[in-house]
Amino acid sequence: MSRIGKKPVSVPAGVTATIEGKQLSVKGPKGILTLAMRDEITYSVEGDGISVQPANATKQARAFWGMQRTLVQNLVTGVTEGFTKKLLITGVGYRAAAQGRNLKLQLGYSHDVNIDVPEGVEVKTPDATTVEISGSDKQKVGQLAAEIRQWRKPEPYKGKGIKYAGEFIFRKEGKKK
User: pTM higher than 0.70 for the full model?
Assistant: First the structure.
């Protein structure tokens, strides 16, 4: 039994949720997000919230129950507050610069790395070693952050590379003579 799935998702003022066919749409101040509804789960929109229940007693329906409730919660949070990921760049000569819908990274390669920013996601560089990714869709924000980090993962000896803010890098001791 899902413990998180039992709680309905509260819908704050200014946010509307509608079910149209096999789509759950949530509209708020930061835009509209949709979720494809699963057949194993029943969704119902009441006045104060959205409840998610398994449609039958199968193991698969119970497995999807908590995850679907969390995805609905992410829709509501996305259209009200939005999501933000912060990346920190460490290394001599490593820097980032946001240029419109592109992000230009200098990461020690012989060429600059240019990354196209998808629609619905905003990238800011408050300084040359910090990248802030924000948007209403949690999946898009996290995916872009992971793709940027993939270019230079932090290494364990000097800690050079791109890491998430708050991430701990396990440091190793170097060779001894």
Answer: yes
